[in-house]
Give the backbone structure.
Amino acid sequence: MISVTNPRQVAFNALRDLDRKQVYTDIALDRVLRQTNFSNVDRGLVSELVYGIVRRKRSLDALIDLLGKKKARQQPPNLRIILHIGLYQLRYLSQIPESAAVNTTVELAKANGLSKLAGVVNGLLREYVRQAVRADPLLLPENPVERLGILHSLPNWIVEIWLKQLPFEEVNQLCAWFNQSPTTDLRVNVLKTSVEALETVLVDAGISVTRLPHLPQALRLTGSFGQIKQLPGYREGWWIVQDSSAQLVTHLLDPQPGETVIDACAAPGGKTTHIAELMKDKGIIWACDRAPNRLQKVRENAERLQLSSIKICAGDIRKLTQFKEKGDPAGICEADRVLLDAPCSGLGTIHKRPDIRWRQTSEKIRELSLLQRELLKQAATWVKPGGILVYATCTLNPQENEEVIQSFLETYSNWAIEPPLPSSPAYSFKTSESWIKIFPHQHHMDGFFMVKLRKSS
């Protein structure tokens, strides 16, 4: 193990890997933290710097453009990262004194072969401090798209999508919400314990939790809790990590004991295992995914939660017409209910996966929209007459949500939207169109779209 004792150096190493190797934030962060034996405080600082700087990249670049002699894109890559580290501490980490933020960043430049540019780092950061005494150094344009994009560090095209759905002030709140550190929600496995019992066990272990309205199996961790796998009940299968929005999807599907259900894009198995729990582990759930290695995670989650009703079927669901496990002589072709949690742009989860805002493009979303329509068309063929299909995405983009469903319903007259029952946890979130759209700033959970469709009998 390489002994690394400086959290800012470790953050720099991760950010440099992100820049050079184009890896994902969580992968880069895990890679560098495994080389340390940091305390929880130092690990927290590294995580905050890495995730925060990836989120705030556009805002930080705008500050470099305003304060530096060269624009951000003209700076040497390593210097640009070091300036991001200094500016992020000054602007977003109030617990770190200004002098410490400036001095540690100057030392970071020297330690990484930039001694000749240490004066540039010192001068730019101290200029930020001087200007901040009088007013916010981040000057914003009047154009609403540019203004929100620079303030909240988002590409213009994402801001434009949301401004077509919500007024300016609500989009401002939505963008701000996506720059918060994410919370962690647990879904209690009620086949093994109860929400009340797990809540008591966690509180007795010194972990702060809160219940979530309308979600009967959810507990939110509200304080620090260390490593997730060390929490009480993990090995016993009492709970699984799952955002509250994702829990709503399965409640909307409303699977019943004894039914046959297909989860079309199942990995890593959060919704698959929830289906099994709601069915009291009685019936058959087919967990499908194109990637066999990702289905291994479904198996692991099912085993830990001690669920036996889940079967695995690997393959491209656009081509699947029969469901059977390897070695089975026969399978099934139709199900009572089908869940299609479709591949999407993920714009409802960019607080957890900050890379998304920089990796997705309008062109990629057009391709995703076509894929979603193909998947929905195929998944609909698996539903028995009178059966249910739930379409869901973790994005807030009508091109991937409302437009996909409207096109499907216009093409297939034997399908119709069915609103959630008044007894369903999903009922409180129903819109006038009878689908569900979760805006995070309104409900404090991941952004999601979901709709329940019934096939005529």
Q: What stands out?
A: The mean pLDDT is 95. The chain is about 45% helix and 15% strand. The first helix runs from residue 7 to 21. The chain has four domains: 7-141, 142-179, 184-241, 244-455.
